[in-house]
Amino acid sequence: MREAYHSELGVLADQLAAMCSMVAEAMELATRALLDANLTIAEQVISGDEKIDDARSACEEHAYSLLALQAPVATDLRTVLAAIHAAESLERMGDLALHVAKAARRRHPAPVLPDDVRGYFAELGRVTVQLARKAEVIIRTQDVEAARALEDDDDVVDDLHRHLFTVIMDKDWQHGVPSAVDVTLLGRFYERYADHAVSVAKRVVFVVTGRMPGSVSEDDDL
User: Fold this and answer.
1) How many whole angstroms separate alpha carbon 10 and alpha carbon 77?
2) How far does the chain reach from its first CA to its final CA, in angstroms?
3) Which residues lie closer than 8 Å to 149 by C-beta, 6 or more apart?
4) What's the sign of the alpha-carbon dihedral 99, 197, 84, 221?
5) pLDDT tens by residue, 32-75
6) I need a labelling partner for 19 at 20 to 30 A (CA). Which of 25, 54, 80, 187 fits?
7) For each successive 10 residues of the chain (222 residues), what is the average pLDDT?
8) At a CB cut-off of 8 Å and minimum separation 6, what does 59 contact?
């Protein structure tokens, strides 16, 4: 019975890892749509968001059934609870990729981004997709050190996000208020996407160690 239960926990982890792959692809395509003003790719991301929502529902249904099947304790209980929280974060990552794609569609055929900031968003897209891909590996391997290192990549996103403000607030900004608003919102979408990826990684640390990174109890051991 326990062996079968642990097998089901493995299936749950596979479902979460698959969601990571889905949201990574969604942001990769959304960024391409944004940079290239490609309506076809934007529509692909928008229509595909329902699959991410369904994946979250499937993960949660599986997790709740595992809670009902047995009364899990210790690591097993942490695994199920972490999966529920991680599925929520991953769905939000899909929603944020959706917002990027919708911005590309809303401005089509005009490009959303002025040339001044295209390079920043190309890098934001690269790093955030990488975060999601790394989160997938972390879920599959339960690598605590890799999970903790993910915050370094998130710092890169935070730095890029902050720098965007200096660009749009500069006296030489010539693209008007609507464009500045677009850049601000889009930068926020990428920043939040990265935060959710880090949250997923932290859930893995919680499963393995029993403590959330940054908690008082963890800091006491340092």
Assistant:
1) 13
2) 38
3) none
4) negative
5) 999 999 999 999 999 999 999 999 999 999 999 998 877 777 88
6) 187
7) 80 97 98 98 98 98 89 85 97 98 96 96 98 98 96 95 95 94 97 98 95 60 35
8) 12, 15, 16, 19, 83, 84, 87
Residue whose entry in the numeric block shows the structure tokens 């030489």: 172
| Domains, the chain | 2-213 (1.20.58.220)
Q: How many CB atoms lie within 10 A of CB 137?
A: 13
* Residue 96 in tokens: 């944020």
Q: What pTM did the predictor assign?
A: 0.93
Check: CB of residue 187 under 8 Å from CB of residue 164: yes
Contact 128, 186 (CB under 8 A): no
Please name the residues in contact with 62: beta carbons below 8 A apart, sequence gap of 6 or more. 8, 11, 12, 15, 83
Q: Which residue has the tokens 């599925």?
A: 87
| Cβ contacts of 186 within 8 Å, gap of 6 or more | 34, 100, 103, 112, 113, 121
Q: What's the chain's Rg over C-alpha atoms?
A: 19
What is d(CA 61, CA 57) in angstroms, rounded to the nearest whole number? 6
